Input
Amino acid sequence: MRQLIVNADDFGLTEQVSRGILDAHHEGIVTSTTLMANGGAFDAAVSMARREYHLAIGVHLNLTEGVPVSPALNIPTLVDRQGRLHLSPRRLAQGIMTRQVNLAEVEIELWQQVWKVLRAGILPTHLDGHKHVHVLPGVSDIVIRLAQEFSIRSIRCPSEAAPKIPTLLRFGNSRAAAAKQYVVGRTVSIFAWRFREKLVKAGLLSPAQFYGLSQTGFLDAQSIQDILGDLPEGASELMCHPGYLDADLAKTGTRLLVQREVEIRGLTAHQVRKLVADRGIQLINYLYLRLETQVPEREVAAREMTLGSMGISHGSLQQERSTK
Output
């Protein structure tokens, strides 16, 4: 049986992003979303969520932008002079490797983000990471511990099979940007292959297949149909970023602006919903996952590539919960 989780990231980023996610759920194929604890529209998103009985909600862990949930004084290596999260995933990884970023502070902030969602009355179905920071070495161990501590049994593993090159060539003047995103997808997937081994060892769940990483910024109705047309047996996840563009979204600094509305149209398109039905694809959420102990064959093959050493030694993390 083909099963598909369609997860919309960034719930709570702005009100109009949250409304776009709900429209893609009500009128389209979105089954799941992840809530940003430090999103500018967190309270509004929680209020909306209380009226949604069929939309699964996880936590979108964020270390790269916005106002942190923790007091800035408690996480000085993660914030700028204005007290805002500001490290890109690359700079965050470099900071961890050089020990300029304190992993104990990472744990403090991520713990507070999960706790804020729980305190709002939402029981998270899973965890994932804004810009996939949750698969970075050091951070990944923290995220697994948090899932175990809060009895969250599933975590996204964004290990994506490389999309076919012709699908990238469709984007015309955006080919350079598509190629750049393709490289991002390959890089994230390398970290995620190793992360999957940790998830299996910890007894945590994740879909065997992942889609939407290389298409971030370019996901439209045709791209979704391409993914659905090749969907294998078993459980898969399609990541998406639907939303409506307004001044609040433009102020966030996200690169996904008009594209979010393109995604709404794709996720709600008649031909997309028809293809789901014609192929007998069961739309599910993270609550329906079962334990998979085997790593997909495509990942085993990919590991034969020479990827270089990416491991880092960060020592033991402090277990203090001084800000609980």
